[in-house]
Amino acid sequence: MEVPGLAHSITSPLSPCEGMIKDLSLDAIQLCERDGSKSQDGSISEMEELPVPQNIKISNITCDSFKICWDMEARSKERITHYFIDLNKKENKNSNKFKHKDVPTKLVAKAVPLPMTVRGHWFLSPRTEYTVAVQTASKQTDGDYAVSEWSEIIEFCTADYSTVHLNQLLEKAEVIAGRMLRFSVFYRNQNKEYFDHAREAQGNRMLPSVKDNSGSHGSPISGKLEGIFFSCNTEFNTGKPPQDSPYGRHRFEVQADSLFNPDTNLYFGDFYCMYTAYHYVILVLAPKGSRGDEFCKQRLPALDITDNRFLTCKQDGEGGGLVFHHAQDVILEVIYTEPVDLASGTVAEISGHQLMSLSTVNAKKDPSCKTCNISVGR
């Protein structure tokens, strides 16, 4: 039985989220410290007879929900009316000591059959480590609670966005993608040393590396997918790549059909912004049957390469070669999952500036943006 979110029956004046969730059988959400057995107003009293939850098990973990169950001794089991579930983000040893700590969240749930589902995007975030402990409680006629000792503390980590969540992001990105502009090359900017290393130590190849943590916190490709970032956006007035870049003054350019063709699969990876008006869409290009392709098939929404709002590859209607278009109103970050030989393109120095402020390396998504966020943990 689900206990997540909040229910129509939530009446606690301390609940900061009253009425936000409809599929919950939670009685209340209270904010309190787990140390000690009494609340600040003294309304919770301790009674040894109530059984302490044992062998807590967490299962069915998603980015914003989990199932929880435990064992209990039979003594006084019939007196249990509620469960207190204490949920906290696991403390990060490297966190800023001057920042306010996350407020602990105590879920007060009716004693429903186990396992119960705890769900709530306002207190659960994807890819986040949490600790959880449980008390059993008996509500008294005067409104006070008799409680057991706290259980042992269990740790778990929430999951990445599922394809359901990614499809929600995809739909939001489609709304602002804008009209399609023609392009002919993919390009990658880096410093001179990067390309020198590729020539001297990597067999004249750029090699895939693990994607950083930029973008949505729940993205299933961050820290997991290996690839090489490329751009394809062009300037509206010239139809060519811009001469400025945040990543370096040397640019590798390759004809678009070398990376994107009918033997390539295209996937939607993410949609985000960085507290600016610019919005970014991450796409993945994976040669069919490659290791990157197999990774993406299980985790990302696939796009039709000839018909989507972001990046297309079509046969020229006049019987010529392939024609390529990109969305005008979003900045595309294209990840190619395989090594790329420098001999397949050219490397040259650009005439513009290196605009470091526009770099998206490990960039954090703006959690308040209504354009690119969905109603799950950010």
Question: What features would you highlight for this structure?
Answer:
mainly beta; 378 residues; 4 helices; disordered N terminus; six-stranded mixed beta sheet; 2 domains; Immunoglobulin-like; seven-stranded mixed beta sheet; 24 strands
| E-strand count | 24
SSE ordering: EEEEEEEEEEHEEHEEEEHEEHEEEEEE
End-to-end distance: 26 Å
> What number of domains?
2
Strand content: 25-35%
Radius of gyration (Å): 26 Å
- Rounded mean pLDDT is 82
Tally the helices. 4
Domain Fibronectin type-III: 52-161
Family: Belongs to the PHYHIP family.
Function: May play a role in the development of the central system.
Protein name: Fibronectin type-III domain-containing protein
Q: What is the gist of this entry?
A:
With 378 residues, this protein is mainly beta. It contains four helices and 24 strands. The protein has two domains: 26-157, Sandwich (Immunoglobulin-like); 163-358, no CATH class.
